[in-house]
Design a protein that fits this description.
By secondary structure, this protein is an alpha+beta fold. It has helices at residues 32-44, 88-97, 103-115, 177-181, 217-225, 278-283, 285-294, 351-362, 365-371, 424-428, 476-479, 524-530, 533-553, 562-576; strands at 2-3, 20-22, 25-28, 50-53, 120-123, 126-133, 139-149, 155-165, 168-171, 186-188, 202-203, 233-234, 237-239, 246-247, 250-253, 263-268, 271-276, 299-308, 315-323, 381-382, 402-404, 446-450, 498-501, 506-507, 510-514. The strands form six sheets. Strands 14, 15, 16, 17, 18, 19 and 20 form a seven-stranded antiparallel β-sheet that branches. A six-stranded mixed β-sheet has the order 5-4-3-9-25-24. The protein is globular. The chain starts with a strand and ends in a 6-residue tail after the last helix. The protein contains 14 helices and 25 strands.
Amino acid sequence: MLTLRGTGSRPEGWPLVAPAARADIAVYGGGLAGCAAAWKAAATAPDKQVVLVVPYPEGEYGGLATVGGQNFWDLRYWNRDGRLAQGGSFAHWLAATGPFYRPADLAAQIAADLGRLPNLQTYWAMDITALQKDRRGRLRALALRDLQRDAAGSVVWGRGRRILTASIFVDASEDGRLSRLSAAGVTVGRADWPGEFLTPDYVKPNQQGTGWPRELSAERQAAAVMPAPGETAGAGLNLRPRQQAATLMFKVQGVRPGNYPDMVFSREKGIWGAYGGREVYINDPVVTGFNDRYGPRGFALKPLNAAQDGPGSREWWVNALLIFNVDGRANGRDRWHDAYPRDTAPGALDTDTAWQLAREVLATPDLLQALRRFDGFQAAELVRDAGGQPVTAGLLYLRETVHTVIDPREAGPGTENSNYALTTAASHHAGAGPRDGDDRANYVNRIGLGFYWQDVNAYRYSDLKGGDGRYRWPVTPYLRPDFPRTTPGAASLPANPVYIPFNVLLSRTIPNLLIPGYAASISSLAWAELRVLPNQCVLGDAAGVAAAYAASQGRDPGTFTDVDVAAVRGILVQCYGTRVDK
């Protein structure tokens, strides 16, 4: 059965003629979750053929961590033992790069690790246009098509096509495309939050988007009013849940590390990193003026993170520019086709439009003037390419897209502690061991530990300001006042790592699909902790071993018993150094 979801014409459907290939395990997603999954699947089952599909044009492994310019690991050490909660692929790559790194070096390390496996093949720059399922609802095959960049830098379809069949599929992507198109049962962004915190996300059925640029508003209007599966509506309003703000990394030079009151610089393995700027963000008139001007258009500067592009480099990658109302599911190449989401928020930007507009903002004198107000960046200059344009990452840093639910019929507001394998309560109130905490039920089927702060970014520009009109940071305790102790610090919650249960990787409706990417069965607020790169590696490792075990046993992972999960856990611990105990 051919299964497609969405609206519009269908030139990107199932190809009439295309080369066909067969694999035992197909992994979709070139980021760290996908690379970890492909690596562990191929290494655990050397007699099985594994294909890794990389859905972006650049020929580098790593996704956000390389092509995306995020060249620093988000690390949090557990106070109780002073150790990191994550092992496996993450520990290996951290040891190779250090906490700050040159993206090309991490990409080369991953290429070396994956290149040692003769049963692993990579399909570069290809994305899904359609898929097939059998009569039992199992995934059977993917239709893939080449990707390339056009003259403006947007990602567009190429001419090459391929059909890939497999027994086990893994969705390790950031946009959850495989899970969405296969009807795995997903919710968008913060759709599961309690209703009282979702008031800004309800829109009138006839509401027209007013986002920038104006020419997109008419195109979005029809999609904004069409009811979506699982959508909650009340009092004549439709819910269009937002996703966390995205970011586009960019390069600067002229950074001056030192001791500053509002910026922390540190050096590891000969590479500098920096974070801070909260007081400047809140109080400096140039920075607040920039945000007052560009915030209503969907862009704002936040307190920044930055890291040097390798030892001795004059160039730094910077994480500072927020982009609001980006729908991470939506790509320009899919517009009017089945893969384009039909329930976008009014004025929502697709990823290509957001990327282009962010580059335009970076090129304005206002941006550089505001950036120079941060300590250590007073002499910063944008690094520019041969055409004089700012050097930016090839990918947006998407913080959130979709989340797989346990029961699609129960999806909607107020389900963050009932309809996901990893709940908000389990994450926020994780215990110190297997007998306490709201995550204790996860212990029996744990496949790793996840740990970070509950780091929610803003959903709207208005989230950045308090009732007094002043800017505020961080925003988590304001957006979710029921969780006031989330600001990083000694007394911050969550205080302990969370046991990650095997079921976060599953879709009830598709038994041969594993989901270690953004679409994992993790509530929106729990995802604010699990979304960082070390935790994505943990999910990828577990999915890879589970896929190998399933392929070797001739089983679907959706049929695993506690005994099977224990076998997967044993392989993770004994062969790959995964940490599963506190």
